[in-house]
Design goal:
By secondary structure, the protein is mainly beta. It contains 1 helix and 8 strands. Helices cover 9% and strands 45% of the residues. Strand 5 and strand 6 form a beta hairpin. The chain is elongated. The model has no long low-confidence stretch (mean pLDDT 88).
Length: 135
């Protein structure tokens, strides 16, 4: 597998239409993705002292975070309105290889900051709600 550029890891928000059209959230300088899983132990006295887990069981989730410079793009404004309303919407992550991860997410945190003579920046955190599809 070849190394990929971090700048090609993009967060996109859906437009609420059917079919969904995605717009890149502009100004993101850093992005991070975590795939989380909860294990279900099925260890018994027949396990020989070793823990055994049940494949496919438990709760899986995807967490996404990003930080960047606020540009006032339509995608950023849509994201902010979702954060204020607490609504779940369609999001897509794209990678340099062309691979995507698509699902519905809730914005769990949106922070803005700025210095007197500096740019306005923000950080955002999203948590998946339902199935996240990798293609």
């Amino acid at each position: 597998m070849a190394a990929e550029k971090g700048s090609a890891f993009l967060l996109k928000v859906g437009n609420g239409a059917v079919p969904v059209v995605y717009a890149t959230v502009a100004g993101l300088r850093t992005t991070q993705l975590s795939v989380n899983g909860e294990a279900v132990a099925i260890t018994s006295k027949d396990s020989g002292g070793w823990r055994e887990l049940l494949s496919g069981a438990g709760v899986r989730s995807v967490s996404v975070s990003g930080a960047g410079v606020f540009t006032g793009s339509a995608a950023e404004l849509r994201m902010r309105s979702h954060a204020l309303a607490g609504t779940i919407d369609d999001y897509r992550l794209t990678f340099e290889s062309g691979e995507t991860m698509t699902g519905r997410f809730l914005i769990t945190r949106l922070d803005y900051a700025g210095d007197y003579n500096g740019e306005r920046s923000y950080t955002v955190a999203l948590e998946s709600s339902g199935v996240v599809v990798s293609a």
